[in-house]
Amino acid sequence: MQGTKEPTSPPTAYTPSDRTVPTRSPDRASYDKELVHAVLDEAYVCHLGFVRDGAPVVLPTLFGRIGETLYVHGSTGSRPLRMTGQADPGLPVCLTVTHVDALILARSAFHHSINYRSVVVHGLAYDVTDPEEKRVALDALVDHVVPGRSADSRPANKKELAATAVIRLDLNEVSAKLRTGGVNDEPEDLALPHWAGVVPLRKGYDAPVGDPGLAPGTELPDYLGSL
Amino acid sequence: MQGTKEPTSPPTAYTPSDRTVPTRSPDRASYDKELVHAVLDEAYVCHLGFVRDGAPVVLPTLFGRIGETLYVHGSTGSRPLRMTGQADPGLPVCLTVTHVDALILARSAFHHSINYRSVVVHGLAYDVTDPEEKRVALDALVDHVVPGRSADSRPANKKELAATAVIRLDLNEVSAKLRTGGVNDEPEDLALPHWAGVVPLRKGYDAPVGDPGLAPGTELPDYLGSL
Question: Which range marks the domain in which residue A172 is found?
Answer without folding.
Answer: 26-184
